Known about the structure:
The protein is an alpha+beta fold. The protein has eleven helices and nine strands. Strands 1, 2, 3, 4, 5, 6 and 7 form a seven-stranded mixed β-sheet that branches. The protein has a two-stranded antiparallel sheet with strand order 8-9. The radius of gyration is 21 Å and the shape is globular. The protein starts with 18 loop residues before the first helix and ends in a 6-residue tail after the last helix.
Amino acid sequence: MPAKYEGLDFYNIDAHLTDEERMVRDLVRQWVDDKVLPIIEKHNRAHTFPDELIPEIGEMGLLGMNMEGYGCAGMSNVAYGLACQELERGDSAIRSFVSVQGSLAMHPIHSFGSEEQKQKYLPKMARAELIGCFGLTEPDYGSNPGGMVTKAVEDGDHYVLNGAKMWITNGTIADLAIVWAKLIPQGGTLADGVIRGFIVEKGDPGFSAPEMHGKHSLKASVTSELVFEDCRIPKDRILPHVHGLRGPFSCLNNARYGISWGVLGAAQACFHSARDYALTRIQFDKPIASYQLVQNKLAWMLREITKGQLLALHLGRMKDDGTMFHEQVSLAKMNNVDIALDIARIARDMHGANGILDEYPVMRHMANLETVKTYEGTHDIHNLILGRWITGIQAFF
Ligand code: TGC
Ligand code: FAD
């Protein structure tokens, strides 16, 4: 029987966790070992999401787990981060599923929805009986969502939506989509529109969500377009309590925070695979782990993962005590994705030719992390967010 996975905890982060946080981490860790790792390569090859895991993710209480009420578990942000770390050790697709459902679909309803919307959707979403997605990006507006052209126009007691979203995680399997569109006032143009959030349900007339194909990354995740052709939704589906880009961006803060933990899980999977491989692979009559260059690579991985963990833990504690600001999230998302991707690339190299096989997890993580570097704000965008914080000058345009 393989040794039980113990994680990587060089600086004894464990001692700074509550019993509840350790319990969540251990529960998800075991579940990933038992349920995700045995099947993920098969799904990655087939470009399919493991739907069969969705009910169990709900039963474990991971969906919207850092929110209070409406069937959510009400746990700390650190517990949520630890869960993300374990899930992404399995695959970024599994962490993405949980991020999108909790941080991007449930969070806007929880923070900006009416009481009726919260009652209607959140308990079922927490139990995974309803799946959500988040539509912000458009074909021509990725890093610059403020330029979006998807619009909503009032028509009696309905809104009529026209436009398209692209690259939407969970889109095709979702029961509802949180869609950000410009609400055009009577007689106004797109330039007069204010960005608002709308809940579009599967089956609403004029709405479709075709799956996108041909990805070399996040192959076990469903990625979709959302198409609105005179899509009519009742007026009570607008999120009443937020106007402007602040709405979608505050959801992104949550999801970016989860990513800053999640990618450390992918990095740890690559580190462990590289270390184990280096200890057993013999070249020039000795294990490659006995060569200084190889040890240097492993020491660098340990160093960066440890720093990343301390960053994520401290960020989580600030999020829990309400002192975190969004530029701090940008720094953690950017840094931790960056080091995870470098770790994956170096681990791939350390496996030699075997590194390209799906017998080892490293190339799958490496390919996934290319997406994670791009979504939720690219590396460049987070640099520019920090540049603006440092200088007070925006350099986006
Ligand atoms: P800007 O003028 O900076 O801000 C507009 C308004 O928003 C407020 N704000 C924020 N509020 C909360 N949290 C944040 N992080 C915020 N950032 C900005 C800001 O205070 C302002 O509020 P108000 O009330 O004064 O109007 O907006 P900008 O248009 O100049 O944009 C700046 C920029 C480039 C940083 C922003 O557009 C950006 O972050 N772009 C990146 C886009 C992005 O991250 N897209 C992600 C799409 S979703 C996704 O990728 C999901 S992947 C899912 C998975 O895990 O599978
Ligand atoms: P672009 O914005 O076109 O950027 C291209 C390049 O230009 C990047 O290197 C970028 O850093 C650089 N660049 C852009 N602007 C500047 C600038 N001002 N200065 C310097 N460099 C700049 N979106 C959602 O809304 N919901 C989802 O669920 C979702 N899931 C996704 C799942 C996957 C698998 C992927 C790949 C993407 C997903 N996205 C989702 C979209 C994602 O958020 C966008 O891809 C991302 O925001 C970048 O937009 P873009 O791809 O249009 O790139």
